[in-house]
Amino acid sequence: MIEVFKTNVQNETDTTIIIKRIQEYFHDHQINFDLEDCDKILRIEANKIESDKIIELLNIQNFECVKLE
Asked: 15-25, pLDDT tens digit by residue?
């Protein structure tokens, strides 16, 4: 399963922090960002993805995060 999110993350330093934070909760998730995309894409691959929790984790760190359909 793959989920894609639109974010407002702007730099690699923030992506590293966010990825570590998500992996604290979800060890088996493959996570990457595409900051060159206009939507600053967060892409997550795993057997089961808790989208609401992912959004919450970014929001807690003051980032916007919206699941793309």
From this structure: 999 999 999 99
